[in-house]
Write a structure and sequence with these properties.
Elements (H helix, E strand, L loop, with lengths): L2 H8 L9 E3 L7 E2 L4 E11 L11 H18 L3 E11 L5 H17 L3 E9 L4 E11 L14 E5 L4 H10 L9 H9 L5 H5 L8 E4 L4 H12 L2 E5 L14 H11 L5 E5 L4 H10 L4 E8 L8 E5 L2 E4 L10
Parallel strand pairs: 4-5, 9-12
Antiparallel strand pairs: 1-2, 3-6, 4-6, 7-10, 7-11, 8-10, 9-11, 12-13
Helix pairs in contact: 2-3, 4-5, 4-8
């Protein structure tokens, strides 16, 4: 593979963000942004740990990896603007397949008016993709997990467990004859981050957000730990798509609580602002549901408890941990 020819082939011919002064083509990209706070994140994805050919086409690899980073921007209340991609490319991945990865990234980036402004491509023994994303949010409006307070309402967008069920179907194609299989598989391969909904919450002075990448059990615990408060979740209130009804109760519980990679948002807001959250959901055509509440107890702060079958049990982190 000719590295320079490949870079030229993925270079954007024009940019969507007017703040870009210089994109790909120099030693570094340059952009100018005033009156906004800059939000940035980086994630590294390794073949057969974070994705595999068994469940993903190259196009879906690119789409889903950038979606994961865009979801981080949503959780911070930010608008994604730019991204940079560094790839360690092994010989068993063809140039055409690498192009398909970029094609998947390009398509979801277009939905959010994002620009590719740089990166790097080198050879190596296994496919490794590092994504750096940059977004912007109004000054002092970035959303932090630690913003959660006592007596808050706990809510979640969309439905939980869809992606995990889709992955199960991809890994076990002969085990299940499931209606809505295409929906579940697409939820795994092509998630839609909740940027628009999060941006619609900008009028709120305070809201804590976390994206459901590792499973609601892990994300709720991260909120509880960051705010040093106690969270209670009502299992019967967790939103579930009708397609999950076809699985056993044990499978449904596993998918919803620990499956992860739905890239929905879990959040906490003052009770008096709950109506505003519902209005934001309505305006952005987003499903949102109250699933619990926040309290304070010096003996349990930093913990999450699940109410299920008239019992209360501690819900520990047990989601996707990015290991094989």
């Amino acid at each position: 593979m000719n590295e320079f020819k490949f870079i030229d082939s993925i270079k954007q011919k024009n940019y969507k963000q007017p703040t870009i002064i210089k994109g790909i083509g120099d030693d570094a990209a340059v952009f100018r942004q005033s009156y906004l706070d800059t939000v940035t994140a980086v994630d590294t994805f390794v073949e057969n740990i974070h994705f595999s050919r068994q469940t993903m086409t190259p196009y879906h690899v690119g789409y889903r990896l950038l979606a994961a980073n865009i979801s981080d921007m949503a959780a911070m209340g930010a608008s994604p603007a730019y991204y940079m991609i560094s790839i360690v490319a092994p010989a068993h991945w063809s140039e055409e397949e690498l192009q398909e990865i970029y094609s998947g990234m390009h398509d979801i980036a277009t939905l959010y008016k994002m620009d590719l402004i740089g990166g790097d491509t080198v050879s190596g023994k296994e496919l490794v993709i590092s994504v750096t994303i940059v977004g912007f949010v109004e000054q002092y409006k970035a959303r932090y997990r630690s913003a959660m307070q006592k007596n808050d309402v706990l809510f979640v967008t969309g439905t939980l467990g869809d992606s995990s069920a889709g992955l199960y179907l991809l890994l076990n194609p002969q085990k299940e004859t499931v209606s809505d299989a295409k929906y579940l598989i697409n939820r795994h391969r092509m998630p839609m981050p909740r940027v628009t909904f999060a941006r619609e919450l900008q009028s709120l002075n305070r809201v804590a957000l976390n994206d459901v990448s590792d499973g609601i059990s892990s994300e709720a615990n991260e909120l509880a730990e960051a705010a040093n408060l106690t969270v209670y979740i009502d299992y019967d209130q967790l939103p579930m798509h009708q397609a999950l009804q076809q699985f056993s109760p044990e499978q449904r519980e596993k998918f919803m609580l620990t499956g992860g990679e739905d890239f929905e948002l879990v959040g906490a807001v003052a009770l008096e602002d709950w109506e505003k959250v519902k209005e934001a959901a309505k305006l952005t055509h987003t499903e949102v549901k109250k699933i619990g509440y926040v309290t304070s107890n010096e003996n349990t702060n930093g913990s999450v408890f699940l109410k299920k079958d008239k019992q209360i049990i501690q819900l520990k982190k047990a989601g996707y941990t990015h290991r094989s």
